[in-house]
Design a protein that fits this description.
The protein contains five helices and six strands; from the N terminus they run E-H-E-H-E-H-E-H-E-E-H. By secondary structure, the protein is an alpha/beta fold. It has a single domain, classed as 3-Layer(aba) Sandwich (Rossmann fold), CATH 3.40.50. The mean pLDDT is 94.
């Protein structure tokens, strides 16, 4: 499976967290990244997003249907995510629009094979990491194909 982990674009600060909206810069970031992705994603790509407005607004720029999952909200525990990935199509493409720190924690797990404490890798706002992901009886095996930020794509 191709797995694209995409951090929501820049959003306003302040509570309530799930209602935070994209800023003007965030809208530009999301538009730039989505335009690049749209030209490379197959038509049957699945898109999963958190309930947060900023994640949904980021995904809106892909101009395709998406599934909203509370299991991807900002405060989730990253170690629950491999079980969620097991439900994804093994030969398809999945885009997940989410949040730090769990995006960075999941990426570290996929590439290192273990959780390594609470360490995580940094994702730029609006940036994404593209993995080739396989799963067998030994767990997940990931290859990093690309790491891109909106600034790199502009």
């Amino acid at each position: 499976m191709n797995l694209i982990l995409w951090r929501h674009a820049e959003a306003e600060y302040g509570p309530p967290d799930l209602a935070r909206q994209l800023t003007e810069k965030g809208r530009r970031q999301a538009s730039t990244a989505a335009a690049w992705l749209r030209n490379r994603l197959p038509q049957d790509t699945q898109v999963w997003v958190s309930q947060a407005a900023r994640s949904r607004q980021t995904a809106d720029y892909l101009v395709q249907d998406y599934t909203i999952l509370a299991t991807l909200n900002p405060d989730i525990y990253a170690r629950t995510l491999p079980r969620l990935l097991e439900t994804a199509p093994r030969n398809g493409t999945l885009v997940i629009v989410g949040h730090q720190p769990w995006l960075g924690q999941l990426s570290a797990f996929l590439l290192n094979g273990d959780w390594g404490g609470d360490a995580y890798w940094s994702y730029k706002k609006g940036g994404f990491w593209w993995f080739q992901l396989k799963q067998d009886h030994n767990g997940f095996h990931a290859k990093l194909k690309a790491v891109l930020t909106p600034e790199m794509l502009a």
